[in-house]
């Protein structure tokens, strides 16, 4: 058995253990941390129902420019189907994950910006319930007070982006959604994943978001920016 095969098997076994652990909700971040140094192909970490909703919005807008906070398998998959896209900017806080995405997505339309958090994020839970709760508490605090992610939030503006489609699926999602809506071109659409989480509700409702149903793993919400008048 090759070293790569052993590493992939170990990774799959650990993720299976997380799913079997009582009280532990497996998140994209658990998988991101575990797979950040793996060469296994990036997978779409969305339920098929939610991913199909994102595809419908993406195809309806047919954007030439896309901004995404939080990169992954959906980045690769949407780029492959979106021949109308001319520029795709992904913003990622996790250096190892950013490097893995960069290595696997070689499309010349794609650029990934690694923008680190200004304070240390708690260590991954690795199946430990107390560490998992501490990590969740920190992430919720970041939603209330996103100062540690100031540069991350501002990265799309710094890059001169004027997207017609935005996907918010990373850190500091409330602040990124507000910032993204300001940057969004008239007629464009902003999508937020995991919209069922209580910490995102108020910000998305303030933007006038539509919360899509049904959903299984992470609800999709979207808001469309009005067309320019005149």
Structure notes:
This protein has one domain (41-224): Vaccinia Virus protein VP39 (Rossmann fold), CATH 3.40.50. With 230 residues, it is an alpha/beta fold. The relative contact order is 0.14. It has helices at residues 3-20, 28-35, 48-61, 73-81, 95-104, 129-144, 150-158, 173-183, 198-206; strands spanning 65-69, 87-92, 110-114, 165-168, 189-193, 210-211, 220-224. Helix 7 packs parallel to helix 8 and helix 8 packs parallel to helix 9. The model is unreliable at 2-8, 14-26 and 30-38 (pLDDT under 50). The protein is globular and about 55 Å long.
Instruction: Give Rg in angstroms.
Output: 17 Å
Count of separate structural domains: 1
What is the CATH class designation? Alpha Beta
Strand % is 5-15%
Shape: globular
Count of separate DSSP helical elements: 9
Order of helices and strands: HHHEHEHEHHEHEHEE
CATH architecture classification name: 3-Layer(aba) Sandwich
Q: Could you describe the largest sheet, including whether it forms a barrel?
A: 7 strands, mixed
Q: Output the CATH homologous superfamily.
A: Vaccinia Virus protein VP39
CA-CA gap between termini: 66 Å
The helix content is: 40-55%
Largest sheet: spatial strand order: 3-2-1-4-5-7-6
**Mean pLDDT across residues:** 86
Q: By helix and strand content, what is the structural category?
A: alpha/beta
Number of strands: 7
Sequence stretches where pLDDT stays below 50 over 5 or more residues: 2-8, 14-26, 30-38
What CATH calls the topology is Rossmann fold
